[in-house]
Structures are given as structure tokens and as C-alpha cells.
Amino acid sequence: MDPANESSEGTPFILLGLTADPRQRQPLLVLFLVLYTAGILGNGLIVAAIQVSPALHAPMYFLLAHLSFADLCFTSVTVPKMLANLIAHDRSISLAGCLTQMYFFFAVGVTDSCLLAAMAYDRYMAIRHPLHYATKMSRAVCTALVGTAWLVSHAHSLLHILLMARLSFCASHRVPHFFCDHQPLLRLSCSDTRHIQLLIFTEGAAVVVTPFLLILASYGAIAAAVLRLPSASGRLRAVSTCGSHLAVVGLFYGTVIAVYFQPTARYEAERGRVATVMYTVITPMLNPVIYSLRNRDVQGALRALFTGRRRISAGDT
What we know:
This protein is an all-alpha fold. It contains eleven helices and three strands; from the N terminus they run αβααβαααβααααα. The longest helix has about 35 residues, at about 95-130.
């Protein structure tokens, strides 16, 4: 760690949260508690249903289970601390706690990004190469995709945290955010942050923008195949499904890119907090609905889960 940082090591950061108005804290607490609970229940049920149902052991559901688990972890890194700070007088967090939160936030967030790309690739293979789908998307291939997603995300996060730990924070320690995020902390640093900003625009773009472009390419190819379907109702249903997927993907990546891929000097705290809520709370809550709960196989597995039946077949759904 940079010796210049020693003077700030013992000084905790103060998370200012979503609002400075005490009258808004209780409504925000209720709102985000409901959203967080819905996200945890939705993603947790999807993971449980896929685990217990033999009908949901296809590659698509294997990837979906990992996406739901990643979403569950993603919201849990930041939201519980945010909820606690809405009712607590002490909203401080140590430098070690701040870096730890940031590490897991980036690790799980990048995993989420990579898994969304893997799921888009899976749908592309299912539609464009149905005869070779079982071979090209075998359990070994899916496991390799998931393992690569987790490995790349942790390497990405570790690199950023090692650089952040070398910064000195000799100015204000008041963070205008509800968790420890890159841009607000870089604004507080009195060190040279150009190397970290360069890393965001290069290596960061590789793990965020590249999956986004792959998703767009996959759905573009899927759309071309859908338009050739003989059934008008089939085309309409496929377009509706793809449209809802792309809407959530666009919300996730659009807000992520808006927050991180801009110079630190242009970062606006209030706008950044709103955008961050979209990809840390809203999209993880919507993913179970968009990807799972409208699926008949998943609905059947959830019914079996609630009624205590351990085994269901595809015919049950």
C-alpha cells in the first residue's frame, strides 16, 4: 500500500446514501426492502426449482441457475448495507470494508455480464444449429463457460482493487453514494488516478462492452431466424420474448456504461446513484420474471417445489 495512504487508513468513509433528507429515508427503506426481498425470493426460487427438477437440467437452465445465483449475490453485496444506513446514525465503513465490498461487487457484476452473454450464445446455438445443439452446448461446454465467467470476473476485480488500495484519500471521506463504487472514490482521491481510469476504458471495456456486443450479435442472428418461421403466432411469441430479454439487457448494460465509461471529472453523483440503482437492484429483480417465470417448464418446477414433489417430468409442465 502507498505510504501516502497510511494517514487515511484509520479514517472511515461515510456513505451519504441515496438522500440527505431524513423524511425520505423511511419511504426509501420500505421501497428497497420490498425490491430486495422480491429479488432474493425470485432468484432463490429459480435456483431451487432448477436444482430439484430433472426437467430443468438442460444447458439453458444450467446457465440460468448460475445467473440467478449471481444476481442474488450481486444485490446482497450492496443493498443490505444501504438498508442499514437508511435507519442507522453511523453510516461509516472502513477502508478495508470499502475495498472488500468493491471487490465482490465487481466480481459478481462482471460474472453477471459474462453469463448474460453465455445465455445469448446458448439461445443462438439452439435456434441456428438445433441438430448440433446437444454437442455444442454439452454440460462440459456449459461448465467451461460458467467457470470462465467466474475466473475472469475475479481476476478483473482483483486487479482493480490492488490499484485502488494504493490510492491515498487525504481529502473528504464523505462518499456521495450508497456503497463504495469506483467513480465516487476516485473523486475523493488526491493520488494520480489516470492509470485506473485507463484500465476502466481498456480492460473494463473488454469484460463489459464485449459481452454486450456479443449479445446484440446473437439476438440479431436469432431475429433473422425467427423471421423465417412459418407460423405468425410463433414469430410474434419469439419477438415478444427476445424483445423483453433485450429490454432488460439494454437497461443493465446501458446504465453500467453510462456510469463507468466516462471521465471521473464528469461524474455526477445524483445521476450516478439513479443509474446504479437500475443495474444493482432493478435488473436482478426483473431477470427471474423475464428469463424464467413466464416459462412453462419453470412454472411446473415451482409448483412441484411448493407442493413437495421432488421429481417432475417434462409432461407435467
